[in-house]
Each structure stands twice: as structure tokens, then as C-alpha cells.
Specification:
Blueprint: H1 3-34, H2 60-92, H3 95-106, H4 111-118, H5 122-141
Helix pairs in contact: 1-2, 1-3, 1-5, 2-5
Length: about 150
Amino acid sequence: MDYYKKTEKLLYCYPVLKKHLIINKLDLDDVKTEGEADRSKSIVISRADAAPRRTLPLTREEAVERRTKPITLQINKTQSLLKKIDAAISFSCGDIEKNFIRLKYFDNTQMDSICETLKISRSKAFRMKNTIIDSISAILFGADALIF
């Protein structure tokens, strides 16, 4: 597995993951506040513990829980990944490297503009990028990222 590319992909996707988290939280709030008010009364969702030939309708709480569980799992998974990325950046980067990450991966700034903004040469920028990605990869993926 190419951990370098996977790390870069995670960094490029970081802003989208943050937005996705916000959307999922909004969805969760909607489900909790709306509940099953808009659900058709003619549709019956059966419970797993119901008798085989008899369908018991879900209680409102069961129906809300059934709808919120996958959203909550997705929120937890995304939050966990974002925390790992944040920790990896904090552990491995100083201020200039954090600015580099923000410009390169979060703002999609071209390398020439990054060099100009950070007042570094193009070759230093590429060396910095490689060092940053290697460090973050090692933190995110452990020893697997270090074995060639």
C-alpha cells in the first residue's frame, strides 16, 4: 500500500470531511427533532423480536434509534479520523509546516504561491512536503508506513 499517497489523499479530503461531519450532525438533529412525524401510517416497520407471523410496529423511540444509529456511527468514524489527522499534524509539524499543509492541501494553493507566501525556495518546499507526508504517514499508519 502506498501510504504516502493515502496520507496526501487524507489531507486533501480533510476540509471535505469537516463539511461532511457538519452535514451528518444536521441530519442527526433533523431525525431527532422530526422523529417519525412525516412517516406514513400505512407503512409498518417490524421489530426483530416480533412473533414470526405477527408484525409489531416500532415505537417512536425505536424508529428514531433505527434511523439515528447509522448516522451516529458515521459521525463517530469521521470525528475519529479528523482527530487522528489533527494529532498527526500537531505532533509532526511546526508553524511553517502547518501553514504549508493549510496552503497546499486545505486551500489547494499552487506550489509557486506557497513558496512566495512562506518565502522558501521551490526545492525546499518539495523537501518540506516529503518530510511532512512521511512524518504524518508514520504517525497515522505506524510501522507499516515505514517499511518499504
